[in-house]
Write a structure and sequence with these properties.
Blueprint (H helix, E strand, L loop, with lengths): L2 E2 L5 H10 L5 H12 L13 H10 E2 L4 E7 L5 E6 L5 E8 L6 E5 L3 E3 L8 H5 L1 E4 L2 H20 L7 H7 L2 E7 L9 H15 L6 E5 L3 H10 L4 E5 L5 H7 L2 H4 L2 H9 L9 E7 L7 H10 L5 E7 L14 H13 L4 E3 L18 H4 L1
Parallel strand pairs: 1-2, 6-9, 9-10, 10-11, 11-12, 12-13, 13-14
Antiparallel strand pairs: 3-4, 4-5, 5-6, 7-8
Helix pairs in contact: 5-7, 8-11, 12-13
The protein binds iron/sulfur cluster.
Length: 364
């Protein structure tokens, strides 16, 4: 059976080339082609001897995600629907940075579907389909980089200029906030992190892993990849509300979760991000804001307030009024916390937080 080179880390690639009788600098050349020049075939690796390329074609291949569809939002956010080898589908979301500097944050998936069952989340409604393999995680970044590249090299004309100006750019940040709970696919996520940092060249400080609150995963992340950013999807200030919104809370209640955050070893100037989806009448009261201040005491934090994005299939929750959202934020900020209201990037194309579902519901 052929080996997928995208599934190997540098040492494994080196030993593979060594077994074939080639010098170690050939590994660097292959890595450069795979991760910097986004090659999807050994045939294009023009600085490798022809007999090496032939040998590689005999024993190995380079995986590639099949891009089924892109949708572009009015705000420039682009949602990608990818098909995996077994026919399952996942989504990634490319979000333009607010500074308008042609840099993007890519929100990637770690699982097809998700078993965590968060009540406000479309992915949670799917249940878990399966864990993604390492290359299915890293290939999301490579596929989107390739997608962006085509606009960089294109000839711009009057008719396509505006469209291409929006899309031209580079991925500066990666966030594990797409489909799935990253700590439920811990090993593959950890290997993908090492590929992002060591082979693709993205700094750990530019990568964020977001969890629904799996406490042992938080501890393990700090041991394995200490400088990666951590985000917690919090969404409630009492166990009774969080138990309903996020069943994970029954196993890891707020006290345990906050204790894990308090002891998380943060690099200087770094903060833990707390995501808080605001749901009208459920978690958006003045008392919630005051409890949130208390919960985050002693934690270097920043809070992302996300007014609920209503999706096509869910009508259980209501988005709070703009005035109430602003009031909630004001209480937090007045207490000295950093709190921002997240613009619902891509909400018109169901690419905003909690809306990803990879068209599974449309498939049936
Ligand atoms: S919010 Fe995250 S952890 Fe919860 S169901 Fe959705 S994808 Fe899973």
């Amino acid at each position: 059976m052929k080996i997928n080179f995208k599934h190997l880390q540098k040492k494994e690639l080196e030993s593979c080339l060594d077994n074939l009788g080639w010098e170690s600098y050939r590994t660097d050349q292959i890595i450069d082609w795979m991760y910097k020049r986004h090659a999807v075939s050994f045939d294009v690796m023009s600085n490798l001897p022809r007999n090496l390329r032939t040998r590689l074609n005999d024993i190995a291949y380079l995986s590639e995600l099949k891009l089924l569809k892109t949708e572009t939002s009015l705000d420039g956010t682009i949602k990608f629907l990818f098909q995996l080898d077994d026919g399952e589908t996942i989504e990634s979301v490319l979000i333009p940075n607010v500074r308008g500097n042609n840099l993007y944050t890519l929100c990637i998936s770690s699982q097809a579907g998700c078993s965590m069952g968060c009540k406000f989340c479309e992915t949670g409604r799917l249940g878990l389909i399966r864990n993604l393999k390492t290359h299915e995680i890293t290939d999301q970044v490579l596929a989107v980089q390739r997608y962006l590249e085509q606009f960089r090299s294109d000839v711009f004309t009057d008719s396509n200029w505006e469209d291409k100006k929006i899309r031209k750019g580079e991925i500066s940040n990666i966030v594990f906030m797409g489909m799935g709970e990253p700590f439920n696919n811990f090993n593959e996520v950890m290997i993908s992190l090492s590929i992002f940092t060591d082979l693709i060249g993205i700094s750990k400080r530019k990568i964020t892993v977001s969890t629904s609150g799996i406490v042992p995963g938080i501890t393990k992340l700090s041991e394995k990849v200490p400088s990666v950013n951590l985000a917690i999807s919090l969404n409630a200030t009492t166990d009774s509300t969080r138990n309903i919104l996020m069943p994970v809370n029954k196993k890891y209640p707020l006290k345990k979760l906050m204790q894990a955050c308090r002891t998380y070893p943060l690099s200087p100037k770094r903060r833990i991000t707390f995501e808080y989806v605001l749901l009208k009448g459920i978690n958006d009261s003045r008392n919630d804001a005051l409890r949130l201040i208390k919960l985050l005491g002693g934690i270097r934090s920043k809070i992302n307030l996300i007014p609920f994005n209503r999706s096509q299939s869910s009508s259980e929750f209501i988005r709070p009024d703009e005035q109430d959202v602003q009031e909630f934020r004001k209480i937090l900020v007045n207490s000295g916390l950093i709190a921002t209201i997240r613009k619902s990037s891509g909400s018109d194309i169901s690419a905003a937080c909690g809306q990803l579902r990879a068209d599974y519901l449309n498939k049936s």
